Amino acid sequence: MTALAQSHCVHPFASPDTAFAQPNRAMLKVILVPRRNPQMTRPQFFDHLTNHHAPLVKSVPEFTRFLKRYVQNHTRLPAEGADCVTPYRRATDRDSVIELWFDDADGLHRGLAEPRYQELIRPDEARFNDLSSLIILATRESGGLAADGQPSDCKLFDVLKRRNDISREEFAVRWERHCDLLQARGLYRGSVRKMTRNVVVPDDVNPFGHAADFDGVMETWLGTFADAGAIAKLQSEDQEVAESLARFVDRAGSFSLLAVERPIINAPAWTSA
């Protein structure tokens, strides 16, 4: 977990009142995309995430009784074996993607209000993150693709911003249609192990109390990191796919990350630890 209790320097909770299982669309999924504390190197950051913060979170049952799943994703840079093209701007300045599942917003608020979360976990979050630049999104999984059933921990995250002339509702509809189009392409099916769409919740039910900076996160499991290049090529060179994408995504405002998945709590059976 990372810096859950702070976003854009504003504490949103100052007064906290199977192999390819189908997504639980009712469950709240919080996605965080932080930068590391600038005083840390990347190896120090990942060491802290793996060997200190994850065990710390697991040691606080008062909080983890509300946390249904917890997955860390450690980003990989071109110099670290992930030298390939991505569908959108490569955000090499982001160091991880953290995924946290709660039953609902009430469970999230109750977990963050626990005294031992406030005493132990929250202070540690500030030690290894740059809280001023944190991206934090409340989402719900909304369908996806189970392509071949083979385990993989290589992941592509596309953090999507919608065109400013369409609504969030229209964005979600066009995104779903676009994914159907992708799945009809053999190149896509041959590159993807699994895909999930994470749709940002509407502003009026956003537990963080402010409008989200992005509208969705496309989460794709790959055979190898090089498969990200095949997806990028498909979305730029296949005219029908490219035109579909242009109908709902602000490409300049979106970005991609490549990462290795590290499940921490209640990992699904198809992932590799």
Task: Briefly summarize what is shown.
The chain has eight helices and nine strands.
Provide structural commentary.
By secondary structure, the chain is an alpha+beta fold. The chain folds into two domains: 28-137, Alpha-Beta Plaits, CATH 3.30.70.100; 141-260, Alpha-Beta Plaits, CATH 3.30.70.100. It has helices at 42-58, 61-64, 105-113, 115-128, 168-183, 186-191, 227-237, 239-246, and strands spanning 28-33, 67-75, 89-90, 96-102, 135-146, 154-160, 192-200, 216-222, 255-265. Strands 1-4-2-9-6-8-7-5 form an eight-stranded antiparallel barrel. Helix 1 (42-58) runs antiparallel to helix 4, helix 5 (168-183) runs antiparallel to helix 8 (239-246) and helix 7 (227-237) crosses helix 8. The longest helix has 17 residues, at 42-58. The radius of gyration is 18 Å and the shape is globular. It starts with 27 loop residues before the first strand and ends in an 8-residue tail after the last strand. The model is unreliable at 5-23 and 269-273 (pLDDT under 50). InterPro entries: Dimeric_a/b-barrel, EthD_dom. This is EthD domain-containing protein. Residues 38-132 form the EthD domain.
Per CATH, the class of the largest domain reads: Alpha Beta
Instruction: Quickly give the structural class.
Output: alpha+beta
The percentage helix is 25-40%
Shape: globular
Whole-number total of structural domains: 2
Task: Give average pLDDT, whole number.
Answer: 88
- Give the strand line-up of the largest sheet: 1-4-2-9-6-8-7-5
Summarize the biggest pleated sheet: 8 strands, antiparallel, barrel
Please give the number of β-strands. Answer: 9
CATH topology of the largest domain: Alpha-Beta Plaits
CATH level-two architecture of the largest domain: 2-Layer Sandwich
Distance between the termini: 16 Å
